């Protein structure tokens, strides 16, 4: 049987761009909504996500904002006692979606404590939390000079908390933000050791730095494609078949064939809410992935926010096991 290469169809919802970090390469906190959307707006997003055929709802927010005065004031205005309660309500809404919707949650909101994770765990499907780098010197450079939550020790603590709570996790590194090649290998070793301990890391994402106008690092050179692909190949050698190595096909559509040559097994989450002005339309991107995987003798398949090996009662003692077989059957009917 041909080796599978997976991807997901995701509907991202940006809850707020308030963030405790001001990374030198990131434009996320600069513009956009400040207040958290009310739950009625979230319901509309869920209906739209189902209409567009998404499987995953990615909840996105800035990091370290639970005690921010504006966040606290907003959740209290909504009749809730905390930011965690607000997030939990949204996760409950996703879990309770109509059977025909097949929507599952992915949190992308930064580090969470073990207590916060356990509070949300009955309704939480998966988390994305990038280690980003094991290079401690980035705290003294443009990349993380104003990003207090990006220290390697803090990121590792949060990654281990996900393992303690039994939440499948996608983590990974960024390439080209000032780190050394040696620190990339160190990052892979840190991730591998965390996975050996808890078995919860389902994918390692390799992300490439792109200079963005208006950021402190807008004039910094980005890593070459060859250097990026070399890092991807190192990750594939390090993690083998036990952990998926993920690279976004959306960001690197011109490299799909070479990524497959290097051993990539997951093309990340493709947004169904893409702009009509996107350089590569959704249908064209998927067709390109299909063509390249077939030419490599591989099989492309859609997935949930978690890979199949985590879709068991051990990882989801709540409502997920009853929904997953039905949802998987639906995806098979829609398979390309």
Textual characterization of the structure:
- The protein is an alpha/beta fold and 336 residues long.
- It has one domain (4-334): TIM Barrel (Alpha-Beta Barrel), CATH 3.20.20.70.
- The protein contains 10 helices and 9 strands.
- It has helices at residues 39-51, 69-77, 83-95, 114-120, 152-165, 181-198, 225-239, 256-262, 282-295, 320-334, and strands at 4-16, 56-61, 104-108, 126-128, 169-175, 201-208, 244-246, 266-271, 299-302.
- Strands 1, 2, 3, 4, 5, 6, 7, 8 and 9 form a 9-stranded parallel beta sheet that branches.
- Helix 1 (39-51) links the parallel strand 1 (4-16) and strand 2 (56-61).
- Helix 5 (152-165) runs parallel beside helix 6 (181-198) and helix 6 packs parallel to helix 7.
- The two termini are 17 Å apart.
- 43% of the residues are buried.
State the gist of this model:
The protein is α/β, with parallel strands linked by helices and 336 residues long. The chain has 10 helices and 9 strands. 37% of the residues lie in helices and 16% in strands.
């Amino acid at each position: 049987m041909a080796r599978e290469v997976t991807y997901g169809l995701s509907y991202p919802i940006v809850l707020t761009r308030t963030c405790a970090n001001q990374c030198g390469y990131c434009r996320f906190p600069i513009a956009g909504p400040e207040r958290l959307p009310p739950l009625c707006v979230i319901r509309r997003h869920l209906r739209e996500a189902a209409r567009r055929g998404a499987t995953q709802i990615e909840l996105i927010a800035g990091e370290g904002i639970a005690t921010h005065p504006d966040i606290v004031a907003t959740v209290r205005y909504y009749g809730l006692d905390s930011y965690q309660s607000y997030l939990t309500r949204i996760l409950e809404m996703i879990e309770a979606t109509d059977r025909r919707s097949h929507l599952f949650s992915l949190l992308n909101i930064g580090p969470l404590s073990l207590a916060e994770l356990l509070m949300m765990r009955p309704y939480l499907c998966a988390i994305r939390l990038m280690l980003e780098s094991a290079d401690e010197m980035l705290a003294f450079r443009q990349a993380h000079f104003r990003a207090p939550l990006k220290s390697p020790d803090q990121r590792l603590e949060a990654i281990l908390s996900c393992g303690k709570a039994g939440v499948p996790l996608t983590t990974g590194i960024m390439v080209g933000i000032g780190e050394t090649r040696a620190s990339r290998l160190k990052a892979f070793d840190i991730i591998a050791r965390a996975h050996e301990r808890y078995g919860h890391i389902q994918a390692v994402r390799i992300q490439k730095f792109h200079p963005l106008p208006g950021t402190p690092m807008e004039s910094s050179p980005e890593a070459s494609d060859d250097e990026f692909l070399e890092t991807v190949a190192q990750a594939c050698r390090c993690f083998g078949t036990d952990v998926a190595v993920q690279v976004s096909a959306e960001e690197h559509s011109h490299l799909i064939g070479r990524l497959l040559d290097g051993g990539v097994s997951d093309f990340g989450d493709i947004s169904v809410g893409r702009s009509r002005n996107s350089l590569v339309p959704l249908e064209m991107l998927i067709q390109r992935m299909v063509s390249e995987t077939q030419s490599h003798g591989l099989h492309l398949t859609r997935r949930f926010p978690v890979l199949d090996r985590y879709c068991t009662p051990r990882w989801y003692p709540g409502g997920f096991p009853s929904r997953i077989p039905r949802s998987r059957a639906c995806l098979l009917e829609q398979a390309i």
